[in-house]
Design brief:
mainly alpha; 34% helix; single chain
Length: 155
Amino acid sequence: MVDRSLMANEEFQHILRVLNTNVDGKQKIMFALTSIKGIGRRFANIVCKKADVDMNKRGLVNYLLLSWRISFIVANPRQFKIPDWFLNRKKDYKDGRYSQVVSNALDMKLRDDLERLKKIRNHRGLRHSWGLRVRGQHTKTTGRRGKTVGVSMKR
């Protein structure tokens, strides 16, 4: 008798495309979603529960329907009663909205925030532009690798 758990049926997909990211179909769906930038294990768990996805399945059997449902929940988490404290973008600076930002939009928002901090000459923005530690770490003795070091000798 052949062990069926190791055999893939014809509906199984090894690579899935969800939210402009290639997702590994061999992993369980909850952990596969964490490969999307901006989605962690807890948020992936709650999205799978809201989308009624069996979290023990691999490779998303009804791929098109479920990928559309998952991307819709990630785009509109507040409609599915996911609490505000669960989201990664609270009270956006420009529009004041709560949202979950993923993939390319996350990079864009982060870059815009840093540019805004640099433009208003905020302390955090200045530290970012100088390439120094931002979050209050000590820099007297640590973090010396990677920077230009010392003084060149005159000849």
